Amino acid sequence: MTISHSKDRGFTLVELLVVIAIIGVLIALLLPAVQQAREAARRMQCSNNLKQIGLALHNYHDTFLVLPPMVISPTSDPDDNGDGADPVEGWGWSAFILPFIEQGALHDQTGISQGNILHNELTDTMLVPIAAYRCPSDTGKSVGDAAQRFLKGGGMNYAVYNHSRNGNVNNGDGGFARNRARNFRDIVDGLSNTLAVGESCSKLNGQTMSLKSWAGCQRSLGGNCIDEVAITGRWPINDTTGNVDQKGEALSSLHPGGAMVLKFDGSVRFLSENIEFIRTAGDSNISPIDSLYEYLICVDDNNPIGNY
Known about the structure:
With 308 residues, this protein is of the alpha+beta class. The chain has helices at 13-64, 93-96, 104-110, 226-229, 244-249, 292-297, and strands at residues 90-91, 155-156, 158-161, 195-199, 203-204, 207-208, 212-213, 216-217, 230-231, 258-263, 268-272.
């Protein structure tokens, strides 16, 4: 009888290298898909945040028959030392709607419900991070980030549209202005055709952009506050070429290719950074409203834009 002896055979070096190469290819194929899935989830959460803000604006309007102002500026400086150089703080729109995003306790703690004005040093309540005001795609620090020049208190990724082409923030073309509370009938072009709120990220392509402050504005009397609580259509979406003020006014996000926006009817959509935008008059874009992006912002240009 012949007895055969078998011997376990291992992988050769070539076979092992082929297996490693195949695994590497599979990882290379799967990793972008995983990243895209995660970004899709983050974008959905950002959309939900904006929908919550939209619902809060509607509930605020139902309660007070007006929308919140962009910022309320005190008529005088309570800390004035005589030189007129002190910044004067003012509560912003996002502080006024706190009770309508399930932050009523924080609203009371800040003293807004007691009619207190925002001035002096930051209090602990103004530093509280609010998840509903942060886009999950933006991992920038919400407080204590010296690079965020305009950050006053807890950081926020959402801003209302003012769009003041002539520097008059008390009467901008957008839906929100300083010391002015519009109502829905002022949105002449239609609630479903006009942008109310958009994103503003902390950094983009290595450039510092502008986180907003949910508490309000520290330059409410002497400055224009747009960098701190609002955005405009004077600059292209995701524009990183301008100075710090221009980056503070631009719609910007870390979602690839554009940013999320909220319309006055409460609907949310993704706005492409390639939407028509015409920059004129140097870097200031103070020309009349002349592009699709600006038509979407202006509340009464008589050019309602439906499908875009």
